[in-house]
TrEMBL record:
Native source species: Aspergillus oryzae (strain ATCC 42149 / RIB 40)
The organism's taxonomic lineage, starting at the top: Eukaryota, Fungi, Dikarya, Ascomycota, Pezizomycotina
Compartment(s) of residence: Nucleus
InterPro entries xrefs: Mediator_Med20
Protein known as: Mediator of RNA polymerase II transcription subunit 20
Region (Disordered): 98-148, 237-272
Amino acid sequence: MGTASIQYRTYADSNRVFFIPSNPNASTAFATITERLHSSLADEPIPVGRWALEHKLMRDTPSCLPTSASQRPAQPRYMQFLSLTYFPNHGFIYTSPPPGKVSHAHHGAGSPGTVAPGASSPASPTPVPQQTATPTQAPAPNSQDHSSMVMTTVPLPACSTLFQHFVYACQPFWCHRHTVTVPGGVVYDVGDFRVRIGDVRQTQPAARVRGTIVEIEWKGPSLVTSIASLFSQSKKAFGGPRTSDLPDDDGDSGIDMAFPEGLEEADIDGEI
């Protein structure tokens, strides 16, 4: 796998994404991570399905006009298209703002105690899962402020249509830099966590393996388990099952307040 460090990104309070890069001619960490997942954890990983990812990166084309000596070189602008199988109805688009807004954001960022409009606060996570950063590596001085980028969601078919539009109709202004995919990832449930593992493969402009991605999502205890636990605790607080000596405030409601013992996850429309 080489000596490259593990890169990670937090994009939600309950999610962590790790990327382990690999050399082009070396095997990835997929088999090692899967083996460790089964041998090093107290909870047995339960395979629950497959997952896939596709990420396309576009960059604006440089101007044909020469840059004057007094003019700063323009910062490159990027546009990213992301689709995930576990968000089947959504496509994610992550774009650089117009140059005027970038300048305004950097100007506002120089004032103490101010947050640039459209930029997330330092404590808030970056909302894009595919972006990775090395914790020990300081950003380059001329690199674009990623906190000023904008993410939006569109219906998945519209995401593909927009990408094709920029590839063909806007070719003089935007160029397709690369496409990476996770074609056959595996999903495990491990206790209160859901773990997604997959090999990242570049398909454009040249096919090659880039590494392995691991997403760890905290799902928390089951909703049914939580309700059953609360119901059991309430019964213990009254010393066991309800008797005639205990007050019954629900007797005149006409509603059966007893917890249904046969309740299953399938009976609930969605987790909270």
